[in-house]
TrEMBL record, chains A, B:
SMART domains, per the entry: CoA_binding (SM00881)
InterPro entries in the cross-refs: ATP-grasp, ATP_grasp_subdomain_1, CoA-bd, Ligase_CoA_dom, NAD(P)-bd_dom_sf, Succ_CoA_lig_flav_dom, Succinyl-CoA_synth-like
ATP-binding is among the record's keywords: yes
The protein, known as: Acetate--CoA ligase family protein
Alphabetic keyword roster: ATP-binding, Ligase, Nucleotide-binding
GO molecular function annotation: ligase activity
Positions of the ATP-grasp domain: 503-539
């Protein structure tokens, strides 16, 4: 199976091609059928029923008219003078490469290949056909979506070029401000169906299959250019072209749209399953997380969470500072929602005296007026209690979000009155109003949604979605402070650098590295120690020397000339011909002993898909075991770095835990931001960098990297 | 507000009283009304409509007949010769204590008080009324459920003594094998409603309100005694009487029933909210977790998860070894479910060659036959592909659970055929068959459930529930190995013990404590050091001395007599009159220096509700920060202890991480099990015990506690 993802060298660039895919002036359907049980039959039915206004040409086995349209038996027989933008190809796999080549030669600009039987089969035959198809693209310049895909739709233009059941009549899908782009056809259908009751409609829809040429990332660029689109739902098994995805996500953020992504393959087994499904390369899920976070893409864990997130992200209000007022008819629901609010980074609003007075005046004496408000079972006989509570919290200045949480059912409650009161509040206020209706599928959630009030059927789901909206708002605010890069010298060479050279390079980038001096013999080392003062650390430095500690090539706490001479001689002997160290040696590094408040670790890795990723975490074997690290994808802001450091489990160690002196956290933030901004990191010249440990000194005294392992790589083309 | 929970000294014990509550031979409704908008009207309507076969007496304001039944205006006017088992009281709060006292004097055995306006209001008046009500119970021996509760029902006996909308006609609730017991009325309604489509029916239902006397735990004892009950759903804001709950849960486990619990107040804010709702004391959620786990209670996070768990726990099949076969029509769904299987402790079955051959023979060439199976979009035209896949996995010996995961919708699929095939498989096989139908609320989940096939509408939910079932099965197997207690001497005294005495006590219990010897003067210390050999550790021991390290009262690594004399003199000076240490002193402890593979910590705390809780975790400040500890409630099995230790994030440190010698994990397990089994711990004599560190020696060499801080408490009455 193929894992190559570079675009075929087509003549139509990505922006233009989404125009062809979503707004073709004319279409040819190759493999058309009059039988609605067949895929070619469904494609034609959807194209006609969808109201496609352009010209439709058909190629079919029999060449007879189908549904009132003429057909021919091959691409060659199509009218010579017809300009055809887009082809939809549904022939058996074996015929696809030749067909696509013929379409390309004829000037058709793009083909949607729905046929299966290519790389996804894991067979040699499938791989061969996929290679032939790629060659057809390369030769003729035609761009391809698929193969093994379910096609595209643009309900804003009456285009349905897909056989997905999404477009069967019973779903009643309408045009609206949401787009669904998916690497899986079934998942595209699922996400559309789950979102539908909660959004105004879906305009763009695409299932990209094997992504031989065009992928979700390419389509995203085209989709976010439409001002009518507010939210995009992605289903991803791999990131495809990460730079294209990043650019499209940035464009979405600039124009106030939100991209939601369900990325599967988060575990080792899931990643293997994804590999056999679409040929995706296994990828560290933490890198995917950092990449999506960097580009403002909000991640969902499962289809259900996606359907919950879209309810809040497809509407225009924000969660402000995340201060929630809870209006319930059940103390129990109030407690559950309070737990979930805290678990998802929200907090309960503290009501003003005025709000409390209004609540006391309007609610029964045995009601709870402190947040969470409990109007009690009295709601059975007094439906206007909800309105009383809503009026009070509507004017409360410390409230950003009003959550109406009701666990009621049956004919005992005046549901219509409660619905009307909540909808009326939503019209009067600028606050976000959310309903949590926890009592089975009585259709109330959908009824609120139909009136434009986001509604949830579960306590965790409700607070998780509001928490995500609040977090996204905070992140957008941080984006005003993205630092420019720091132009730094690009180092020569590739491969592991000696510790001496690594430290020189980092110091040259203006990063805080321990005062480390090179001596080439024992006397030189003693002289250097005299300059910097005992105690000192002695290390052997050379471009092939890693794991110094294990090899006895580091000695700390040397307190006098004699001890230094013994250690220096031992290390030079090890490096001499016949000694335990092979390879070139720079010499001996002499460094002052530095003691910090705590040891941290900072680093860079180069991910095959995402490129440079910066890492910050606690130091030591325990932190390593606990994976107490955070990843950040450049460009890295101070705010994001500070949040990442503060979110470390071991963060208290540098923040004055149990009477320790507080560490210089701001200097650590600057080190990470500065490192991420260097030309070398931004341009992908760093294959791996490990600053471990970075000593955090007391507040105001900075940080210092005492060990440096730097591996350089070739610049990206 | 009251936080007391001890039962009023009633004459009817808990087992009998559940009989009165759930199977009363006659009832009086105090506060009856003919107006269905009033609570007293709903109570009467439910009692009549539910078909209650016993005698019904009414007390009402007007004393006129209601719904064809006579009524009187006070308890005193009730017929003298009538034997009345149960009263339901719905008068204003102020009249309740007097009414309940009159009922008690009359010989009524129990009262369900639905009236609000007691402790839950947080007012002095409410607290006073609650105290008066308690006095009425104490004086007359009547038992009370409530106040501020929504009542009880037993659909197996035609009893509905509740005004909850659960029992309004539209819900159509029927009798079945589930019980719902809740500290919140609305949550009882919610849990019932959410479970209903997925279970055969609900027999017992109770909402216990303020739990002045009887609580969920008391009712649970009565409910699990009914052989028809298979599953109990609890909603808890506090544990109530933990011993009663533990005993009832044990009885449930013995009779093959499962208790599911939704316990709220998991966060600090939620716990505060619960306090103002029901007067619950704040409680560490980790202790609640350990308590529920110990007693085989399966915990749900939210109402939705409760409704998902009951689908699997209300049916008889197990998840075996948790090896799952996935049959999907979507590679994407397969990947998502594979991720979730791994995340929830399950694994994908490895199909036998025979299974693979059957799948290859029956499925399209481009289908995926390795687990997860993807029958592909070909299902559109070939509905029998699901059956083909099911037939193959049904006979697969490495498969315990078959998950059919379909993301399909609309009229394109033969849903009836697929439903019939899955139901047929379920009838033919003994394996657990589960459906994951991820495509909106098309009613398919409920259709499968109606045919007895547990079904879910989400990937995470499906695997989370199966994972819980598999875990519960493993836990039940472990229960065969609950150790008996270890009869050990009960120590005298209370309060913090000196380190010397603490070590003597633990050594007396047969636990591995460092060889620690007491000297009373400098010469004595030197003599002891001569016996055990240098290097040694010196400590000052006394019953009021804590935090020795901070006070300089511990010195490690003493290598000779001179250094020992200096240290000993310094410590004795500190303990002399006018020195820095006040309080009595035992003397000087001299101990050998011991080095372990890693430092762990083991301890005991006495929780106010739960009693003794044993703790095991990694040692050191990092582990402390990371809360890398596990709690276990006695009796503690070896298997549970081993699982707890293996689940520690820092477990690799004692398991041969990066070339370290593997530690004696089994000795650590024995220490925890033995400690938990001591008479003193089991009988609640240990207020707090801190063995920190416990050094883990290389495998086969044991563990040794080097610091001991033991605080004893009075025995429980």
């Amino acid at each position: 199976m193929s894992t190559e993802r570079e675009p075929a060298s087509g003549s139509t660039d990505s922006t233009d091609v989404t125009d062809v895919l979503f707004r073709p002036k004319s279409i040819v359907l190759v493999g058309a059928s009059g039988d609605p049980a067949k895929i070619g039959g469904k494609l034609l039915a959807h194209l006609r029923d969808g109201g496609y206004p352009g010209e439709i040409h058909l190629v079919s086995k029999a060449g007879l008219p189908i549904r009132g349209l003429p057909s021919v038996t091959s691409v060659a027989e199509l009218p010579v003078d017809a300009t055809i933008d887009l082809a939809v190809v549904a022939t058996p796999a074996a015929a696809v490469p030749e067909t696509v080549a013929a379409l390309g030669h004829r000037g058709v600009r793009a083909a949607v290949v729905v046929s299966s039987g290519f790389g996804e089969t894991g067979t040699l035959e499938g791989a061969r056909l996929e290679e032939e198809l790629r060659a057809a693209c390369r030769t003729t310049g035609i761009r391809v979506l698929g193969p093994n895909c379910q096609g595209v739709a643009n309900l804003g233009a009456g285009l349905v070029a897909s056989f997905s059941s999404t477009f069967s009549k019973s779903t009643g899908l309408t045009d609206g401000g949401v787009a669904v782009l998916s690497q899986s056809g079934a998942m595209a259908a699922v996400l559309t169906q789950l979102a539908q009751p909660f959004v105004d409609g879906v305009r763009y829809w695409a299932a990209t299959g094997n992504e031989l040429d065009l992928g979700v990332a390419d389509l995203l660029r085209g989709v976010v250019a439409d001002p009518a689109i507010r939210t995009v739902q992605l289903y991803l098994e791999h990131l495809g072209s990460a730079p294209v995805l990043a650019a499209a996500a940035a464009e979405a953020a600039r124009s106030g749209k939100t991209v939601l992504a369900l990325k599967s393959g988060t575990t080792a087994s899931g990643s293997r399953a994804a590999g056999s499904h679409t040929g995706a390369l296994a990828q560290e899920d933490s890198v995917v997380d950092a990449f999506l976070a960097r580009h403002g893409v909000v991640r969902a864990r499962d289809p259900r969470e996606m359907s919950e997130l879209v309810r809040l992200f497809a509407q225009p209000r924000t969660a402000g500072e995340g201060r929630v007022a809870l209006v319930t008819n059940s103390g129990g629901l109030g407690v559950l929602l309070t737990d979930e609010a805290e678990a998802h980074g929200l907090r309960l609003a503290e009501f003003s005296p005025r709000t409390l007075a209004e609540l006391r005046a309007g609610l029964p004496s045995f009601a709870a007026v402190e947040n969470p408000i409990d109007v009690t079972a009295q709601l059975l006989s007094t439906p206007e209690l909800v309105r009383t509570a809503l009026d009070a919290v509507e004017q409360d200045e410390g409230t950003d979000v009003v959550v109406v949480a009701l666990g009621i059912l049956g004919e005992y409650y005046d549901l219509d009155q409660i619905l009307a009161d909540v909808v009326d509040l939503q019209r009067r206020t600028a606050k976000l109003v959310v309903v949590c209706w926890v009592a089975g599928h009585a259709g109330m959630v959908e009824r609120f949604a139909a009136h434009g009030v986001p509604a949830f059927d579960d306590t965790t789901a409700c607070m998780r979605a509001i928490g995500a909206l609040a977090r996204h708002g905070r992140r957008l605010a941080e984006e005003d402070h993205v630092p420019l890069g720091r132009p730094t010298d690009a180092p020569d060479g590739t491969g592991l650098q000696s510790e001496h050279r690594g430290k020189q390079i980092l110091a040259g980038w203006g990063l805080p590295v321990v005062d480390s001096r090179l001596a080439t013999d024992v006397d030189g080392a003693v002289a250097v120690a005299g300059e910097i003062g005992y105690p000192v650390v002695l290390k052997l430095s050379g471009p092939t020397i890693a794991h110094k500690t294990e090899l006895g090539l580091v000695q700390v706490g040397i307190t006098d000339d004699d001890a230094l001479r013994v250690a220096a001689r031992r290390m030079l002997d090890a490096a001499a011909p016949g000694g335990s160290v092979s390879g070139a040696v720079d010499g001996l590094l002499v460094e002052p002993m530095v003691a910090g408040v705590a040891e941290m670790t900072v680093g860079v890795v180069h991910d095959a898909a995402v490129g440079p990723v910066v890492m910050v975490g606690a130091g030591g074997v325990q932190a390593e075991l606990l994976k107490d690290v955070r990843l950040l994808v450049p460009p890295v802001t101070e705010a994001a770095t500070r949040s990442a450091i503060e979110s470390l489990a071991l963060h208290p160690l540098i923040d004055g835990y149990r009477g320790r002196p507080p560490g210089d956290v701001e200097a650590l933030v600057r080190l990470v931001v500065d490192l991420a901004g260097t030309t070398a990191v931004r341009e992908g010249r760093v294959a791996e960098l490990d600053l471990n440990p970075v000593l955090v000194l007391p507040r105001g005294q900075g940080v210092v990297a005492v060990d440096v392992a730097l591996t350089l790589r070739e610049p990206d083309r």
